[in-house]
Amino acid sequence: MEIPLKFKKQKAKSLLSIYLELSKLNILSLVLVATLLGYFLGNMGWGSWERLFFTLLGTSLTAAGSGAFNHLIERVPDGLMERTKNRPLPAELISPIHVLLFGITMAISGIVLLVWKVNMLTGFLSLLTAFLYITIYTPLKKVTWWNTSVGSIPGALPIIGGWTAATGEIGTMAWILFGIMYLWQHPHFYAIAWMCKDDYAQAGFKMLPVVEPDGARTIRQIFWHLFLMIPLSILPVIEGSLGNIYLVGTIIISIAFFLSAIPLAKDKSRKSALLLLKASVFYLPALLIVIIIDLGV
User: Fold this and answer.
1) Under 8 Å CB-to-CB from 36, ≥6 apart: which residues?
2) Which domains does the chain have, with CATH numbers?
């Protein structure tokens, strides 16, 4: 079985690199972009740099702790998959109790920091995100392919956390942002699941490309969520928060995101899935840039 080079992992070589891998930096980076997007729109600009710093720091710590718990829970199936067998726990580079203590310390530190330096609501949302990710989404991956849709809820909460850090409340615009982020995750994670479906099957994860190998439903799910993103991304203009520059920009990047899925629908190859994955990673920072330009900040 050939694993895409992008997903092959080498063993960590130092304690710092072990901690960084436990923190799941790839997911953490997307969480921070989403949080920054929510914070920026909540302020209609950058607002307080000190508050932004503590928002991102607290969110990072909580996300890192959640990632460590995920490593702990999935250490056995990780050892069965080619792309994850060199992770710290299956490679026996660190003990489970060490990972547990790291996860607890990081998660609690992040939540406390958010409550202390930002506000109670943002701290609660961070706690809720960690709880749903660790106790609901992670074990659900062994149960049903709906794990992606359920997991997209905690995956979309950080953008609301950014908004509440700026405003102290959850407004209409925050829910619109949540909806965009919720829909975005489906093509993103279905692309990953398609690329790694053999690995997921080996580990017993009920991802959609595993339970329905022909890919028909996976493709439908991808296009359904991509299609819904287009009208939803226009709502900030109708709501009055953003203007014409954003309208044109978001239509362009949303359609480009939609078009990036067409090759996968045609050939169902790993190369086409990687194209969709790259487009999804490009989408969020592109959306932030369009918003910054629109607001003239």
Assistant:
1) 52, 56, 162, 288
2) 5-295 (1.10.600)
Which candidate, 134, 86, 145, places its Cα nearest to that of 107?
134
One DSSP character per residue, 194-209 reads HHTHHHHHHHT---HH
Q: Tell the residue number behind the tokens 């959609």, with chain if given.
A: 208
Burial (CB < 10 A; 0-12, 13-18, 19+), residue 148, is buried
Count of Cβ atoms closer than 10 Å to residue 294 Cβ: 20
H helices of 204-269, where?
208-211, 216-239, 244-259, 262-267
Can you give the pTM of this predicted structure?
0.92
Q: What is the pLDDT of residues 209-258, one digit of tens each?
A: 999 999 999 999 999 999 999 999 999 999 999 999 999 999 999 999 99
Q: Is the pLDDT of residue 66 over 80?
A: yes
For 145, other C-beta atoms within 10 Å of its C-beta total 21
Looking up tokens 């398609």, which residue turns up?
A: 194
Q: Which of 208, 177, 198, 193 is nearest to 288 (CA)?
A: 177
Q: Specify the long-range contacts of residues 93-100, CB closer than 8 Å, at least 24 apart.
A: 93/11, 93/12, 93/18, 94/18, 94/22, 96/72, 99/22, 99/68, 99/71, 99/72, 100/68, 100/69, 100/72
CA count, 13 A, side-chain hemisphere, 254: 21
Helix, strand, or coil here: 168?
coil
Give percent of the chain with pLDDT exceeding 90: 92
Residue 273 tokens read as 């899935």
From the centroid of its chain, how far is CA 293?
24
**Sign of the C-alpha dihedral computed for residues 2, 146, 205 and 84 taken in this order:** positive
**Dihedral angle over CA of 104, 110, 112, 113, nearest 10:** 150
Asked if 126 and 38 touch (Cβ cutoff 8 Å), the reply is no
Is residue 294 within 8 A of residue 246, CB to CB? The reply is: yes
